[in-house]
Amino acid sequence: MTECDIVAERVALGDPLGDLAEHAASCARCRRLAALPAELGAARSVADPGLGFSARLTAGAQQRIAQRRRRRIAGALASTLAAAAAVMAVVARQPAPGYALDPSLFPRPAVRLSHDPWQDPEPTPAKPTHDVDPDVRTLVHFARYERAPHAHAHWSRIEKPLAPYRMLFVGGEP
Amino acid sequence: MSITGALEVASRADARGRLLGELAGAPARKGYGIAYDLLGNRAEAEEAVQEALVRACESIGDLREPAAATAWFLRIVTTMCLRTLRRRRLRHALFGWLPGRDDAEPPPRDDIAERVHAEPEPAPADALVSRETLATMLRRLDELPAQQRAALVLRYGHDLPVPEVAELLGVGQATAKTHLVRGLARLRDLMEES
Lengths: 174, 194
Description:
heterodimer; A: 174 residues; mainly alpha; B: 194 residues; 72% helix
């Protein structure tokens, strides 16, 4: 830290220059800096805001406060309505039945069925077959959550007993 | 709404009205003085004080001590002024190069026009600073960063101690001291250039 820096700090904070007074008097830059606070003080303006300043200010502020309150209420109302509309859209949204039940859209499941799960829920050793129950296909389709917007089936539409599905959860072959 | 709730709302509105009435007097005039020295323009200074008054009334709940209402209000005024200065500089940086964009230029300094050109020339012995130096200094102050400029104006223009300057700027005392030291050094360099 040079002497000039220390002088600058003392001048800025209004501290006495002390032992650096000699340097401040001899250094042109320090002299210039030391004169600045007084010049800045002289630059202060006595600003008169004019007649009726307080009344003008109060009236303007009241008007702005009321205006902002109205705007805030309108904004809150609009965002509430938008949120309600979004919730309604999500709740009312259902997959199209034609899409869900169209067999051509379903991939062939990796599971090969050896028996009719509706007739015989318990698995029995049997020779492999390529027949796939459409319900299982639908179930597999629903299980592919990355394709379906709804990762679940509409349980209200399922009329058959759910016993065969249990096998899928426990890991066995239906 | 319950009776207690209604009373609370009514008392809040009443407190807001009282605060508005109190702040619009002497504190607003003091705030106007600070804003005018910081911004150099009457219209912008009044706008800053008005906006500060609105914000003070809207955030009346933040006021912990009613006795400190004036200091709290002046701090909001200073914040508004700093925001105006930053916006002014940003607008100039973004659109100043476009031809015909007069709004990108800062508004004219009323204080230079009023003090340097309109007032009668004081006798040389009475003049602490020549008009020319004063005008140059006011113009050079515009070139300082907003915080440094505000620190200098508050400390030397309004004779406020460093803790109060720090309080108004919303910074710590060490930061306020740094703004003062750097601002003075930068202002000296700018004055030497001109």
